[in-house]
């Protein structure tokens, strides 16, 4: 006799005539860099996601252990483990969403740009695999420097003829998560009630929190708004310093990436009104890639929400970030077009 769960997701759904017979778990999600500091807790969070049918874990080392461990959790996503370059095709084949936290993290004293030399090549290789084995998947890029690694992936996809800018998203959700947490503390409000858009890029001064558009309104003195802005911009470095050589943000990043993946999967599944901040190809400013609030639809980015009116502080910070962001974008493009 087979064990039949008392109320499996599908039996509950069959009570709803609108979705009778549909299986909610329909997506294959691949995590590349799955055995790492971010990859492991991210895979743990995704293992319980009802929309995920297969959780495909890929790394150059250590994937089997992570996969065996996660596969004992009593949720329905099937875990598959893939180790080494030869298994990249199997890891990616049929994926709907590919999340990339592969690469090296910062150590104290390093900027995200210092990671470029190693991570640029890793992201290029993985993007080439995606173009070959799952060219229509959505791609969430976490590997730093995001300001350059997203343009790198875009160039790879353009070369392969598979580029759809709607489906290539640099993950800046951690900046939003941090901004929400810090503003909630400052206002003494529950974090769940707070929402702060963060635009620009994902490194130092290119991170531009729009505190003037925080919900609920953050009526704080100018000096406190300035201090909050700087803390959000330097929050990654705060963690790098506290970990003292043992890496950068992993747990908060995994949380942010899982939330972001959930938004992507919900939009893919047809949920309307999904809005997230992400770093994508953009025409909102004169920068070719820019993070801003986006409405996601079944095919990826559907609309760009306007930047809105910036405060004087934000307008001044916006003009300061342009040169750095532009050069990071160009660095990524040149890496693919001209070679390392
Ligand atoms: P980690 O070193 O703990 O893990 C990275 C994993 O990538 C390792 O398991 C490693 O074996 C794997 N890897 C290396 N080369 C690979 C390849 N060619 N293919 C597949 N996997 C490969 O690093 P951690 O802490 O997980 O960070 C990963 C990346 O995420 C770093 O670049 C870091 O800067 C970035 N990051 C991004 C954030 C964001 O907000 N977007 C926040 C925090 C970190």
- Low-pLDDT stretches: 1-21
Q: What molecules are bound to this protein?
A: 1,4-dihydronicotinamide adenine dinucleotide
C-alpha end-to-end distance? 60 Å
Treating each run of at least 4 consecutive H or I residues as one helix, how many helices? 10
Q: Estimate the strand proportion.
A: 15-25%
Strand order of the largest sheet: 3-2-1-4-5-6
What's the β-strand tally? 11
**What general form does the structure show?**
globular
Helix content: 40-55%
pLDDT average, as an integer?
A: 92
Radius of gyration: 20 Å
Structural class: alpha/beta
The description of the largest β-sheet is:
6 strands, parallel
Order of helices and strands: HEHEHEHEHEHEHEEHHEEEH
Subcellular location: Peroxisome
Protein name: Malate dehydrogenase
Main location: other
Domain Lactate/malate dehydrogenase C-terminal: 172-335
Notable traits:
disordered N terminus; globular; alpha/beta; three-stranded antiparallel β-sheet; 10 helices; six-stranded parallel β-sheet; binds 1,4-dihydronicotinamide adenine dinucleotide
Write structural notes for this entry.
Helix 2 crosses helix 9. The relative contact order is 0.13. It is built from ten helices and eleven strands. The N terminus is likely disordered. Helix content is 42%, strand content 17%. A six-stranded parallel β-sheet has the order 3-2-1-4-5-6, with helices on both faces. 1,4-dihydronicotinamide adenine dinucleotide binds next to helix 5. This is Malate dehydrogenase. It catalyses: (S)-malate + NAD(+) = oxaloacetate + NADH + H(+).
């Amino acid at each position: 006799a087979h064990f039949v769960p008392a109320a499996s997701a599908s039996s509950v759904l069959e009570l709803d005539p609108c979705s009778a017979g549909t299986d909610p778990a329909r997506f294959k999600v691949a995590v590349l860099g799955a055995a790492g500091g971010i990859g492991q807790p991210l895979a743990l969070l995704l293992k319980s996601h009802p929309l995920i049918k297969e959780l495909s874990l890929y790394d150059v080392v250590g994937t089997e252990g992570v996969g065996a461990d996660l596969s004992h959790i009593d949720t329905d996503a099937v875990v598959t483990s893939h180790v080494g370059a030869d298994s990249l095709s199997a890891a990616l084949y049929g994926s709907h969403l590919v999340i990339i936290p592969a690469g090296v993290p910062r150590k104290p004293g390093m900027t995200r740009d210092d990671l470029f030399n190693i991570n640029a090549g890793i992201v290029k290789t993985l993007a080439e695999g995606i173009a070959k084995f799952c060219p229509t998947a959505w791609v969430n890029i976490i590997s730093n420097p995001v300001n350059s690694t997203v343009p790198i992936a875009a160039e790879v996809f353009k070369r392969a003829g598979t580029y759809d800018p709607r489906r290539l998203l640099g993950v800046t959700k951690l900046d939003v998560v941090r901004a929400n947490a810090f503003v909630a503390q400052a206002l003494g409000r529950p974090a769940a009630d707070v929402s702060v858009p963060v635009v620009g890029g994902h490194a130092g001064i290119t991170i531009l929190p729009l505190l003037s558009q925080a919900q609920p309104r953050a009526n704080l003195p100018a000096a406190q708004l300035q201090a909050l802005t700087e803390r959000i911009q330097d929050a990654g470095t705060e963690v790098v310093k506290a970990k003292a050589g043992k890496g950068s943000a992993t747990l908060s990043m995994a949380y942010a990436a899982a939330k972001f993946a959930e938004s992507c999967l919900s939009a893919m599944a047809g949920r309307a009104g999904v809005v997230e901040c992400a770093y994508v190809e953009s025409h909102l400013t004169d920068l070719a890639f820019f993070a801003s609030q986006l409405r996601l639809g079944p095919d990826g980015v559907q609309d760009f929400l306007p930047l809105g009116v910036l405060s004087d502080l934000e307008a001044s910070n916006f003009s300061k970030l342009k040169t750095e962001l532009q050069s990071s974008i160009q660095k990524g493009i040149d890496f693919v077009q001209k070679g390392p």
